[in-house]
Every structure is written in structure tokens, then in C-alpha cells.
Amino acid sequence: MSNSSYHHGDLKNALIEAGIEMINEVGEEKLSLRKVAARCGVSNAAPYAHFSGKEEMIEEMQNYVTEKFMDSLKSAASQCENPYSEESVLKIGRAYILFFLQNPQYFSFLFAQPCMKAHLSLDDDGKDDFPPYQYFKEVLLEYDKYNEQNLTKDEQEIQIIHLWATVHGISAIATMKNVTWDKKWEEQLQILLR
After folding, report:
1. Rounded distance between C-alpha atoms, residue 61 and residue 132, angstroms
2. What is the pTM of this model?
3. How far apart are CA 54 and CA 27, in angstroms?
4. What is the share, in percent, of the chain residues with pLDDT greater than 70?
5. Is the pLDDT at 165 greater than 80, yes or no?
6. Alpha-helix runs per DSSP H in 27-152
7. Which own/partner pairs from 28-33 qualify as long-range (CB within 8 Å, at least 24 positions apart)?
8. For residues 177 and 154, what is the distance between their CA atoms, to the nearest angstrom?
9. Is 150 left (phi over 0), alpha (psi -120 to 50) or beta?
10. What pLDDT digit, counting tens, does each position of 91-145 carry?
11. Pick from 60, 58, 61, 76: nearest CA to 167
């Protein structure tokens, strides 16, 4: 991140983006507010107007990315008349992948964090599940109910794991720097998600 990317008024977000960039480059243990401030071209004291320390900054980074991710998924669902239709499920899956295609730095950052918890068993209440996963799971369960799929709990679990593995796996592959494809991912998603 160059110093020119910081504009007055959005220092907190600039610090968050620089912090994500730094964690992806050198790891969380080498992150410091002083180094993030230097990347943004501000004083060493400037980050302390927004974060009490490194731990709070990392938590804010997790919240920032999670909120953006949730907004993307919910925006996709809102474009459908029926939020529990096959069209809606496909749009949410596509939004999941596109979010990381457009923001590959978030994928490696987010899924290395301890905030990313997912309980695959439907016997678990999922209260501390990662919100985007919880949302994805809820939409699929409502889709099954709305469309009278009459799946057993075990079948629902397998369906959720299968569909999440599909969108998450495509996201992982598409954001790997050492993986290339002569096609545009965005143009192939309709086929990949069928």
C-alpha cells in the first residue's frame, strides 16, 4: 500500500487494509501498529486513535472483512424475488466466490484467523459460527424447507458441506497466486456451480 492510498477521513480503513496486507506478507507475529502506520505514511501514534493495541486492531480487521463479506452475500440474495429459490442459492454461491476473486487478500487473511469457526453438525446451535458460514447454512436449510426437499438431518449436513466445499474450494483455488487458468473465473462460475 503506497502512502498515496491514504486519504484524510478514512485512516481507520487504510490502517486495516495495510494490516491485512502485512499479515499476508509476513505473518501476524510481525504485525505492529508502528509498521502499519509507516505503510500508511502517518505518525506512530495515529493508529492509537482507532485501536488500543495489536489485538484490537486484528479483531477490527476480522470484523471489517466479515462485514464486507456478509454485505456481499446478502446483497446477492436481495436481488431475487424468492430468497429460498435455486436462483438465490446460486447467486449467493457466486457472490461468495466473486468476493474473494475481487479481494484475494481477504481469503488468506480471514481463513487463517481463529474467528473462523464452522460447526458442520446440525446438532450444534452454531451460535459462534463464522457469520457468512452461518448465513450460507441458514439459506440452504430454508431452501430445503421451502422446496419441500424432505431431507434427513444427515442428508442436509452432507448437502451443506458439499455446497460450501464447492464455493469455498473454488474461492481457494481462484485466489492462489501459483494457479493459472486461461479462462476468466467470473465467466465460468455459472458452469462450475451447476
Report:
1. 15
2. 0.89
3. 13
4. 95
5. yes
6. 33-40, 54-78, 86-102, 104-110, 131-146
7. 28/58, 28/112, 31/57, 31/58, 33/57
8. 36
9. left
10. 999 999 999 999 999 999 998 878 788 889 998 888 889 999 999 999 999 888 8
11. 76
User: What is the gyration radius of the CA atoms in the chain, in angstroms?
Assistant: 19
Place of cell 465460468: 188
How is residue 123 written as a grid cell?
446438532
Amino acid at 150: N
Tell me the C-alpha distance between 183 and 73, whole Å: 24
How far is 14 from 102, CA to CA, in rounded Å? Answer: 17
Residues 86 and 146: beta-carbon distance below 8 Å: no
What pLDDT, on a 0 to 100 scale, did the predictor assign at position 9? 63
